[in-house]
């Protein structure tokens, strides 16, 4: 993006933050730096919400469902950020993230793996597959919903959560199912 086209966006960010141009440019020398910081903050906040849901439930089934439903509520409440995060390939997002955000993202997935392992997951299939089975259908639905929002996101949340549970239940201890 050209510097001239970047100025209105930077001015808006600067005004909302209540900082000077110098301060903004000091912390975020480029638009990509600023975008990376926004993405990193959004991911950290969203992942913290998901981990909270995961640990708040006592039964595995309830935790799996709560994570799906919380994810969909986050999409509905944060449409612009959700469009950004759900429209980019994971590798594209990782390239623009600062090192602390990448570290926080790894920690998030370490927490998810720990939760799964404590409930019987053996590491197979790999965590990327488990995460895709868990949230993939909800993300797929959310992408379509973001393109044409209606009331359906809340009405399908229970169905998507049930589907996630059916996908994950065979990977966990029988007593958790």
UniProtKB/TrEMBL annotation:
GO terms for molecular function: DNA binding. It comes from the Bacteria. Residues 14-38 form the HTH tetR-type domain. Gene3D superfamilies: Tetracycline Repressor, domain 2. Keywords: DNA-binding. This is Regulatory protein, tetR family. It comes from Geodermatophilus poikilotrophus.
């Amino acid at each position: 993006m050209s510097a001239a086209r970047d100025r209105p966006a930077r001015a808006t960010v600067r005004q909302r933050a209540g900082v000077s141009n110098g301060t903004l440019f000091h912390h975020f020398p480029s638009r990509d730096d600023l975008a990376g910081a926004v993405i990193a903050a959004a991911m950290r906040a969203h992942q913290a919400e998901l981990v909270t849901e995961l640990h708040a439930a006592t039964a595995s089934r309830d935790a799996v469902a709560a994570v799906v439903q919380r994810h969909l509520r986050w999409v509905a409440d944060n449409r612009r950020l959700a469009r950004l995060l759900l429209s980019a390939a994971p590798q594209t997002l990782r390239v623009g993230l600062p090192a602390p955000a990448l570290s926080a993202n790894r920690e998030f997935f370490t927490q998810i793996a720990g939760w799964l392992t404590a409930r019987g997951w053996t590491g197979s299939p790999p965590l990327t597959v488990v995460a895709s089975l868990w949230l993939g259908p909800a993300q797929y639905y959310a992408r379509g919903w973001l393109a044409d929002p209606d009331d359906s996101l809340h009405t399908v949340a229970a169905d998507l959560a049930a589907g996630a549970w059916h996908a994950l239940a065979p990977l966990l201890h029988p007593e958790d199912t």
